Amino acid sequence: NISFENQVALVTGAASGIGLATAKAFAQAGAAVALADVNGEAARTAADELKAAGFQAVGIRCDVSDMNDVEAMVKQTVSAFGRLDAAFNNAGIQNILAETADTTAEDFDRVTSVNYRGVWACMKHELQYMRQQGSGAIVNCSSLGGLVGAAERASYHGAKHGIHGLTKSAALEYATRNIRVNAVCPGLIWTPMVEQMIANGQKQAMESMVDFIPMRRHGRAEEIANAVLWLCSSASSYVTGQAISVDGGYVMR
Ligand code: NAD
User: What residue stretches are annotated with the Ketoreductase domain (predicted)?
Assistant: First the structure.
């Protein structure tokens, strides 16, 4: 059983889906948790629910595409709980479906500033604190889309591929300094993001994806949370610079 007793965890995109499930899992494992989300009200509501259940939690409004917000998020986490042991850089958005030739620079920038630069921004400020503390573990949320391409999704998949470069480079930099950096690659996980994709007319695409998953089902957000907690815990003390797929076997096909 993994314990985060006396430890502090920070999760971005923590008001929904995979982030919310991971924040809850950290709290249940004993961590004090900072729940950051661009939807500040939802982040605070989620933190209040955890506090009402007897856990230590704080809700923070943070847009990961804003450098000032990200710097303030790390500061707020440390001022609330005194340290930072684990960070899950999870906030992410979908691109507007379009062939590469038809994608607008505006949509490309919108997606990459959250899914790619946002992960770098979070790591920058988390690592500044962790290297001074002399310990830490970071998990970045990539995707199946960080490992394969897909038509009409170049900006999302390109950004997710980029996360692997950020992860491996930072892992190398801090390998001798007691800080590990890894990535998780969720497959098809049932969250509000997927519900939104279905509402946007992608029901058939989602169903045919399930047919292709060796386990023949979508995953649950808690199944990603379990992998993230393992990667942030001492149970994975010799693992760094890795991208772990949690996808029902999808990517091996
Ligand atoms: P979700 O939409 O349910 O939750 C994402 C959360 O991130 C929301 O609360 C949203 O408000 C927040 N967010 C969006 N932009 C933000 C920003 N700029 N700053 C801070 N927070 C922001 O989505 P989810 O399915 O839980 O996805 C979480 C992560 O998992 C994303 O990075 C996504 O790309 C990745 N992922 C999801 C799946 C899946 O099947 N659901 C598969 C692969 C990867």
Answer: 7-193
